[in-house]
Structures are given as C-alpha cells and as structure tokens.
DNA sequence: AAGTGGTCTAGACCACGCG
DNA sequence: GCGTGGTCTAGACCACTTT
C-alpha cells in the first residue's frame, strides 16, 4: 500500500490507471486478497477508485488538490486535528478530581459498578486565545498516575510516550448550540455567538475505550473536514 | 451484516458483546472471512469495536445517538443521509437560474473560463418544519436538462435513475455560524440561535466533481457522526 | 492453556464493461 | 469473449487477553 501510494504521488502511473489486481499480486508477491485489502484502504482515502470491468484509477483530484484531501482521517485528538501550524498552544487546567463513574460513563467506557474516573476540565488556548472547553473522563485503572502537571500538556502524547499506548480512533458526534454563560465567559463570546460541540469516545489501538470527552469549541475555531463515501447497506 | 445491525438496534445482545467470529460464522453458515468483512463495515460505521483477545463490543454511543437526523460517514446525499425514519420530507425551490461559473467554482468543479452552472437555492423541510437552506452549483454540461420539477425532488436520485450516475463521495467542511437574518426568517430561528454549515463538493463515482454545495442547517437538526481512525501510512 | 481478533493465502465463481 | 473488479471460501498461523 505504501509503495503504491508513493508511486501515485510520484506520477509513476502516467495513464492514471493502476495495474490490475492479479498483476499487482504477482508484482509484489502477495495474494490477490492482500492486494484488495491494500487498495480498499486507498479507496477509502479517496486516492483511487475502482470500476468493475474496467480497472483501478487514480483520482485526479487527489493529485491536483492534495491539500484538500490531506486530513485523510489521519489526524485525531486535539493536538493536531485543529490546524495549529506553528501556533502556540496552551492548556489551562480548570478542575480535576476523581469521582465514581456515572451510569452513563460506565456504559460508554465499559466500566463496572465501582470503577472510578478522573473528571478533567480544561481550557485550551491557541496564541493566548481560548478556543475550547474540554471535559474529559478517564478511568483511573487505565492511567493510575495522572498528575496536574501532566494535564497541562497533551494526555495523548503522555500516553504514547510514557505508556506506549496510542489513541487511534474516536467516535464523535458534532452538533451546534447557542453558547451558555460559562461558554461566553471562558471563550469570550457574545450572547448570540454559538459553539460547536464535539462529544464522544476515544479508543486505544487495542480497542479499549479510553476517554469520554465533551468539547465545546468557539465557533470561529470550529472546522471539521470530512471525506464521505457511500456505504453499501 | 444487516441481521446483526438489526439485533444491535433491538438490544438483542444484552451484554453489549457480540458472539465471537467463529461462532457467527457457524450461526450464519458463512466463512469467518465473510463475518470479518461484515463486522469491519460495522466498525467503520462506528457501531461496534473490536478488541483483540477479548471480543467484539457494541458502541454504546451509537445506540444513544440514534436521534432524529443523522449524517453518517456511511451515507451521503441529502435524501438518505439524514435519517428521516418515516418522516415526510419536503423541498421548496427558492431560486433557480443559470449563471457563468465564478473563478472559485471553476476551480472546485474543474470548469473552463466560459462554462455555465445552475445556481439552485432550495429550502428543505421535514414534517413541514424547515431545517436547511441549500445553495448548489451544478455544471450545465453535466445535467443539460434540469427542470424546476426535478428540483422539487432529489437531484441525486434523478441522476441515478435518469442518468445512471451515482454520487458516491463528498468532501465537506463543517463549521458553525451565528444565524443571519435570512437564516432566521427561513429556518424560524431566534437571533441567538445558530446554524451549522456544511460546505463542499460532491463527486460522481467516476471522480467527476458534480456539485458545489453550501448547506445551512438549523442547529437543532445538525448532527454529524464521525468515526475517525488514524491512517497507517 | 484456551479463547478471540488480525493477517494472509490460493483459489473458485460471479458481474460488469468493452472491443 | 475476455479482462477486470466483487464476493466468498476454508483454512493456516500469529498476537493479545483472560482464565
């Protein structure tokens, strides 16, 4: 997959068409099924598309306008899902305590009756400008040692560096709401200025639900790019 | 896949856990590979998640979020992307004319200097309730015959039924804005009630950019579910 | 050690598009 | 008719979790 992607970017398929799957399987010395798995990922990323009976083609738009497609579902979490290019990020810890997991959170994180979670409220800033209020719930059994110092930085980075665990997926619901008084105060909004809300669960690479998060985002900073493809139901 | 989805929605897996893949393959009399393909789609849709060594679990958030109108990663287009379970949809044509494509639209739709596009403004309703203002630009050369009658219904369906072309992908940017006076009037919003904006391009299955669209959605009807996974590059 | 998902294989047969 | 992608099979072996 990596090799084919490279070749596409380096224009090594001048006819905008890939070799057929059976040839690719021979070229790379792998089974056709494996070729299919690889190509299906590229389809998902919008890089190629397949036409039954005709072949597999490179999406010209991907080459012409790579910037447009570059989210590629490959950015996740706060640290890089917002366009922070070179801007200075800040985190202000608003509140932080350990509480018993509510019924709802138990359900979302697959916890038991007597499991505890951190409740973490943070204000995120970019270039001194507050742009997001984040409320997160993390099971203490996943991160038994979480200090305020760590919470001033990216929890995801901490997880990866200190624990070798990666946050690889999230299931988020995006909605829109008028701002409430807390939003207005913390995010410096007027009464008629709204927030975007991203709420959901983050998962570790092994599938463990890791955090329930609710993010209220200043509307000017709320921007979400998505490449949608039709599913066959 | 359909059967399992049904069972999930009808809470027929009370432990939030599916049978293991080998059992499913026996239950349905299919190979384990086929079970995997089916489950992988449900994973992609954020309905379930898998934990190697443990099993396959239902995403509790998915059940919670089965609210009214959803725009899912797996569905596209207006007609079926919003889950309109039994509700009556309406379309009101606000405005409709042919204009030269602006520079920006030329770029987005890969048009030439002197190409023309339809500019189509429509108000969408659900159960008599207006919920979205839609402004679309479509090249006349793709749909030379577009009548107001067609515009009262789904353009995507028309494309598929009359022209045999399918809209299979879109690239959308989601943002949040305070409502303007036009929004307030058409969508029956108060001054401090916002709209969600979905703007982007729709593509045909052969990769042709087909429509530039801007959708302003009543905030109560704006709900976007997304399952993000980190790409392995 | 047993159970569960992850990856991969080598092939069969089907459905679609095109010459 | 032939070449192409689509679907499916029946298994092998690996990696991780739980008992």
From TrEMBL, chains A, B:
SUPFAM superfamilies the record matches: Chorismate lyase-like, Winged helix' DNA-binding domain
Gene Ontology terms for molecular function: DNA binding; DNA-binding transcription factor activity
Keywords, comma-separated and alphabetical: DNA-binding, Transcription, Transcription regulation
PROSITE patterns linked to this entry: HTH_GNTR
Highest taxon of source: Bacteria
CDD domains referenced in this protein's UniProt entry, alphabetically: WHTH_GntR
One BP term from GO: negative regulation of DNA-templated transcription
Pfam family, one: GntR
Domain HTH gntR-type span(s) in chain numbering: 1-61
Name of the protein in question: Trehalose operon repressor
Organism: Limosilactobacillus secaliphilus
